[in-house]
């Protein structure tokens, strides 16, 4: 990781866009760090899987997306939600199981969705998302909107038939679909170095006749550049791309995970390659953004997260009758 | 409850023509594609010249193009997932899974995604997909022959439809495609070409969730659906010669389940047999029989009986040892209940 920002800035991002990228990554980090604390307090009723450490991936990809585009996410989906513009307070309320949540408390951390933002949903099924993206990409293709579908999935999902069927179908039909394999090194407790029968997940792209790209997942600019090329190609009718983003997650598979399967790589990553630190270093080095401006964003983000938690804790819980609706449109 | 299929209200009183069940379903799909740009079809071999394994989609890709009538690789999960994703993006996809036993390949996308996304998103997701599938014949062997509707009845969030006649195949399929919930439409190899009726040529729909009394009778209610309806009707003719008057109730839709019609019938006859091609054990009949017993306990003259497939995979060898319930078994069971 270099200390100086190449000129021009990769991806041609101006100061405002760089601030947006930083705000998104900082929001994800603060959201997850706070959940880590809140989960330990026992106030959160369900399971949470934290995205901390992986912020550059969701942010670097979603910076290219707009209202035409949709994403499918994973069980580790908070970062994807935030990067696609889902309301942070509605997310927090959902994780607290409140009626004011994004899904009225019926989804929880693993199922946060906001169709109005093109966020099809976090997903409790490993490999559940890629087939859905073939559908939204098909819809874009049918209507010539230029829209793309992006499936985020992990190294574990890269071994699921659902993912491989989707890569094949997307290639056969030439769909504007982007497959982002977020390889954080472990599928739950199983090392991807063992479970993925190839040197890289991206190597599998060749088998489907599509481009495969490997990216340093701690480097926002690298992700942003690779995603930009793939998305531009897809929008222009050039078909799907498989992008493998390599990094480490900062917490366990789930909150409460003892992590007996790994050593102190997290500490090292936090100190040496952390995406937020690297981003700050690069953008301040150019003079495009200054430390004071970034700290101002930090303050606004922390205030937002404080408010989200406070409001979530005070929000009403769903009633019994709320929990029995939305099974069918009509019955 | 309607009294006969033919009396069901049509949305168009235009001409009718004699159609097989396969042609009737083709007609429903043709009209759906013609009437709504957002209707698309996808599945293995559905495009011409194959036109589907039962020819249900024959001619449609030629008429509407391979962009809207899309052949797929043999990738059941991708087919269903793509249909769901397209539905989330405003389409009304009709996906074909060639045989019902293949549902196991894509069950996750059906039960964990199609059936649950609406609920999990607090009502923000709408999944107006129709999944067409076929139950095969015993001679196709154990992986092409099982009636698995109970799997889907057990998962809230999906509707389950199983027609018994050509006219209902058209009317119910049209209603499934137009419905905003995920619908599983189960066809049958035996009926696809054997069932022929006068069917409305134009738009024709039968509401989901309404049973139909195929034969009124006084002595005993046979609650059934799909191909077993014809087993019941044949048995009713046999027993009529013995002075036993069967009422045959065709459920037509399993979810929503028209229990009101079932209760009306059984309250009248005070005796019931639930008959289906699905495995008896934990089959749809178990639920229906339990509900009848719970609600009509004091009015029943005899225990509610169930007849379905045996608790083993469908055998290949015919040899007179039918896997599916036979007319003789139904007649014997009816006589037994009349003896109470």
UniProtKB/TrEMBL annotation, chain A:
Domain Dehydrogenase E1 component: 24-319
Biological process annotations from GO: pyruvate decarboxylation to acetyl-CoA
Protein name: Pyruvate dehydrogenase E1 component alpha subunit
Any one Gene Ontology molecular-function term assigned to this protein's record: magnesium ion binding
Organism: Haloechinothrix alba
Cofactor(s) required for function per UniProt: thiamine diphosphate
Domain of life: Bacteria
PANTHER family cross-referenced by the UniProt entry: PYRUVATE DEHYDROGENASE E1 COMPONENT SUBUNIT ALPHA, PYRUVATE DEHYDROGENASE E1 COMPONENT, ALPHA SUBUNIT BACTERIAL AND ORGANELLAR
Matches recorded under SUPFAM superfamilies: Thiamin diphosphate-binding fold (THDP-binding) (SSF52518)
Lineage: Bacteria, Bacillati, Actinomycetota, Actinomycetes, Pseudonocardiales
InterPro entries: DH_E1 (IPR001017), PDH_E1_Alpha_Subunit (IPR050642), THDP-binding (IPR029061)
The entry's keywords: Oxidoreductase, Pyruvate, Thiamine pyrophosphate
Automatic annotation (TrEMBL), chain B:
SMART domains in the cross-refs: Transket_pyr
Keywords: Oxidoreductase, Pyruvate, Thiamine pyrophosphate
Domain Transketolase-like pyrimidine-binding positions: 19-193
A molecular function (GO) term: magnesium ion binding
Keyword Oxidoreductase: yes
Name of the molecule in the record: Pyruvate dehydrogenase E1 component beta subunit
Domain of life from the UniProt record: Bacteria
CDD domains found in the cross-reference section: TPP_PYR_E1-PDHc-beta_like
PANTHER family documented for this protein: PYRUVATE DEHYDROGENASE E1 COMPONENT BETA SUBUNIT, PYRUVATE DEHYDROGENASE E1 COMPONENT SUBUNIT BETA
Species, as recorded: Haloechinothrix alba
Cofactor (UniProt): thiamine diphosphate
């Amino acid at each position: 990781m270099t200390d100086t920002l190449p000129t021009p800035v990769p991806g041609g991002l101006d100061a405002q866009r760089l601030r947006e990228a930083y705000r998104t990554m900082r929001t994800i980090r603060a959201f997850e760090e706070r959940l880590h604390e809140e989960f330990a307090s026992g106030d959160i009723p369900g399971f949470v899987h934290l995205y901390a450490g992986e912020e550059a991936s969701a942010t670097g990809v979603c910076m290219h997306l707009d209202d035409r585009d949709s994403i499918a996410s994973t069980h580790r989906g908070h970062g994807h939600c935030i990067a696609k513009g889902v309301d942070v307070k509605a997310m927090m309320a959902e994780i607290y199981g409140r009626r004011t949540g994004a899904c009225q408390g019926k989804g929880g951390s693993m199922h946060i969705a906001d169709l109005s933002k093109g966020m099809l949903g976090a997903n409790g099924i490993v490999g559940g998302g890629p087939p859905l993206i073939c559908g939204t990409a098909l819809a874009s293709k049918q209507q010539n909107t230029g829209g793309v579908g992006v499936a985020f999935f992990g190294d574990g999902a890269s071994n699921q038939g659902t993912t491989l069927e989707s890569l094949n179908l997307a290639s056969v039909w030439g769909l504007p679909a982007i497959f982002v394999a977020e390889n954080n090194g472990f599928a739950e407790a199983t090392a991807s170095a063992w479970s993925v029968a190839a040197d890289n997940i991206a190597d599998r792209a060749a088998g489907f006749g599509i481009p495969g790209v490997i990216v340093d997942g701690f480097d926002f600019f690298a992700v942003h550049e690779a995603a930009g090329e793939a998305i531009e190609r897809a929008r222009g009718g050039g078909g799907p791309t498989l992008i493998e983003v390599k990094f480490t997650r900062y917490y366990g598979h789930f909150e409460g995970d003892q992590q007996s399967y790994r050593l102190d790589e997290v500490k090292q990553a936090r100190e040496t390659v952390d995406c937020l630190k690297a981003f700050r270093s690069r953008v301040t080095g150019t003079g495009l953004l200054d430390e004071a401006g970034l700290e101002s964003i930090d303050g606004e983000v922390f205030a937002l997260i404080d408010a989200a938690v406070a409001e979530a804790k005070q929000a009403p819980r769903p009633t019994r009758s709320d929990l029995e609706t939305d099974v069918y449109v009509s019955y | 409850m309607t009294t006969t299929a033919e009396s069901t209200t049509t949305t168009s009183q235009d001409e009718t023509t004699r159609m097989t069940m396969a042609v009737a379903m083709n007609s429903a799909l043709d009209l759906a594609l013609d009437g709504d740009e957002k209707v698309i079809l996808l599945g293995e071999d559905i495009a011409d010249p194959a036109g589907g394994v039962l020819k249900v989609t024959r001619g449609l890709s030629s008429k509407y193009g391979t962009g809207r009538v899309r052949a797929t690789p043999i990738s059941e999960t991708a087919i269903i997932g793509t249909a769901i994703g397209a539905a989330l993006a405003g389409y009304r996809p009709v996906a074909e899974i060639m045989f019902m036993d293949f549902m196991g390949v894509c069950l996750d996308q059906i039960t964990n995604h199609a059936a649950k996304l609406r609920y999990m998103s607090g009502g923000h997701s709408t999944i107006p997909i129709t999944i067409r599938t076929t139950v095969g014949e015993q001679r196709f062997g154990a992986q092409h022959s099982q009636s698995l509707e109970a799997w889907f009845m057990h998962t809230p969030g999906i509707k389950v439809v199983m027609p018994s006649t050509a006219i209902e195949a058209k009317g119910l399929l049209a209603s499934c495609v137009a419905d905003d919930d995920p619908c599983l439409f189960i066809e049958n190899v035996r009926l696809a070409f054997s069932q022929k009726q006068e069917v409305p040529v134009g738009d024709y729909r039968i509401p989901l969730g309404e049973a139909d009394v195929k034969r009124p009778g006084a002595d005993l209610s046979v609650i059934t659906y799909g191909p077993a309806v014809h087993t019941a009707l044949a048995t009713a003719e046999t027993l009529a010669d013995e002075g036993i008057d069967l009422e045959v109730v065709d459920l037509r839709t399993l979810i929503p389940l028209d229990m009101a019609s079932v209760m009306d019938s059984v309250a009248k006859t005070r005796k019931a047999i639930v008959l289906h091609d699905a495995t008896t054990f934990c089959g749809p009949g178990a639920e229906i029989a339990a509900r009848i017993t719970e609600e009509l306990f004091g009015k029943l003259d005899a225990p509610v009986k169930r007849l379905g497939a045996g608790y083993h995979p469908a055998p290949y060898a015919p040899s007179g040892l039918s896997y599916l319930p036979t007319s003789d078994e139904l007649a014997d069971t009816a006589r037994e209940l009349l003896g109470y």
